[in-house]
Amino acid sequence: MMDEEGQGPMKRLPVLAPAILLLILVSGAGLCQEKAAGDSSGKKHSIPEKVRASCGAIAAILVVYPALEVRKSEGEIRDLRDGSERPGCQVHAFGPTSGIDGEVRPDEALRQTMSQDGWEEDLRDAADGPGTTSFGLRKRGILCLFHGGAHSWVEDGKIVSAERYQFEAGCASEPQGEETAPWR
User: Is 5 part of any domain?
Assistant: First the structure.
């Protein structure tokens, strides 16, 4: 879709932002599939409500993309620094890459919408590759780590992208006193 001056694809984020915020306000467990947290013994783990709400907000942003299937789940999130696990939630979005061509990329929509809600990006968790990205956002003792995209490469002088787009987010409370420390 061209802008009014014929200068290229229109950025739909200004239109998406109100729709996303509306979805966040009305989102609930019925928005995506959800699995209760627990371990193999059947014991349930307590996931802080603000962590659960963060995954709900992420899912609400991603369901705006009709081509993506979005699923939420709850369970233990592993801290890669020390191997400890904390109760948290995950959001998985996947679908055909062609379904998001010409749209604001989901990672950009997440970054912009969540930063407008007070989330801060921690550049220690940021990395980009051909067609993929990783980043972390923090707010009030919660850290959400994001990664994915559609791998890209050059073939016969042309940029080629994978047919499948995959994006994941995982959120958990940060350990006491580590609200600004890198959680990985």
Answer: no
In order of 71, 94, 183, the CA distances from 109 in angstroms are 18, 15, 23
**Residue 79: strand, helix, or coil:** coil
Query: Which helix (H) or strand (E) is 19 found in, with range?
Result: helix 13-26
pLDDT averaged over the chain? 76
Q: Find tokens 């994915």 and name the residue.
A: 148
Q: 38 lies in which domain range?
A: 13-173
Decide if pLDDT at 49 tops 50: yes
Count up the domains in the chain and report the number. Answer: 1
Residue 23 lies in a domain: yes
Least confident of 14-23, 137-146, 157-166: 14-23
Tell me the residue type at 85: E
Residue 67 within a domain: yes
Question: C-alpha angle 136/138/144, rounded to 5°?
Answer: 50
Q: What is the Cα–Cα distance from 133 to 34, expressed in whole angstroms?
A: 25
Q: Could you tell me which residues come within 8 angstroms of residue 52 by beta carbon, excluding any fewer than 6 positions away?
A: 74, 89
Residue with tokens 């229109």: 10
49 is a domain residue:
yes
Nearest to 70 by CA among 104, 37, 98, 29: 29
